[in-house]
Design a protein that fits this description.
Blueprint lengths: L1 H24 L9 E8 L3 H14 L3 E8 L1 H9 L6 E4 L3 H8 L8 E6 L1 E6 L19 E4 L4 H14 L8 H7 L1 E5 L2 H9 L5 E5 H5 L4 E4 L9 E7 L6 H12 L1 H9 L7
Parallel strand pairs: 1-2, 1-3, 6-7, 6-8
Antiparallel strand pairs: 3-10, 4-10, 5-8, 5-9
Helix pairs in contact: 3-4
Length: about 270
């Protein structure tokens, strides 16, 4: 009889543990159970989210965060295709709004950060890029992002703004476009290629430039610079919508803002 009692006891323990985890996943975690959230974030948020994961898991006992980063446009498409995300943090407002419009999220995008642009060059600046105007010189190789990547919208606006700045050639935008040597999947990939010297220059977020020890920056005129607005949304298919909303509120609140500021992000416009 003792073996049967032992087996019965083990089954009771397993059932109890399973119920404990299930109860925790329905909302704010309680007791010994673990609740899990999967956060999809823009590639430029990688460092922020790694630090935020540690801080949030320490602040909310019983929660486990899984982080995935890539171009916001790529993540948005993956969510529409059924990827199991709970929170989507984008480098723009357009991609969260796309999810809302298509019925994959509800409410409105929650702005949580801002980011400006800068020009980066490899260490040593072999092409001699002294101002953004030099990116229009013949023979300069520019590393850019793909058309669907959010930073491309900001870069296009910045280039158009620069073309109207005093001292810039009238054909600056066209000359810049002609010098684009490759288009990458996200802003982090632009930095990686410039670091390797595979391009003479690129335009990236200030935070991505700050995170690299192998590039130098070329100042962009403040009158021409562009502010990217980062926004988040709770994914409609989340099995823990209350927990997802709590994390989104946290990243937009004082604790999340302190981490973002430490990486050079600005308050949302």
């Amino acid at each position: 009889m003792r073996p049967r009692l032992a087996i019965a006891g083990m089954v009771l323990v397993l059932v109890t543990a399973a119920c404990s985890v299930g109860a925790a996943s329905e909302g704010a975690p309680r007791g010994p159970g673990r609740a899990s959230l999967t956060v999809y974030g823009a590639a430029s948020l990688r460092g922020v989210l790694e630090q935020a994961r540690s801080a949030y898991e320490a602040a909310v006992p019983g929660i486990t965060l899984t982080i995935a980063t890539d171009a916001s446009s790529t993540l948005e498409a993956q969510i529409e295709q059924g990827a199991p995300a709970d929170v989507f943090l984008s480098a723009d407002t357009r991609n969260p709004q796309k999810l809302i419009d298509a019925g994959f999220a509800s409410g409105s995008p929650v702005p949580f950060a801002g980011n400006e642009l800068t020009v980066i060059v490899p260490t040593g600046n072999p092409a001699g890029i002294e101002t953004p105007a030099d990116m229009a010189r013949a023979g300069v190789k520019i590393i850019a992002a793909g058309d669907q990547v959010p930073i491309t919208t900001c870069v296009t606006q910045l280039v158009d703004n620069l073309a109207r700045e005093p001292g810039y050639p009238a054909d600056f935008a066209a000359a810049y476009a002609a010098n684009v040597a490759s288009r990458e999947d996200n802003a982090k990939a632009i930095v990686a290629k410039v670091e390797l010297g595979e391009g003479d220059a690129g335009i990236v977020y200030v935070t991505d430039a700050n995170a690299s020890a192998n590039v130098s920056t070329v100042d962009v005129p403040g009158s021409a610079n562009v502010m990217a607005t980062y926004a988040g949304v709770v994914v409609g298919s989340s099995a823990n919508a209350a927990g997802a909303q709590a994390f989104l509120d946290w990243i937009a609140g004082p604790d999340g803002q302190a981490i973002l500021a430490g990486f050079g992000f600005l308050p949302a416009p």
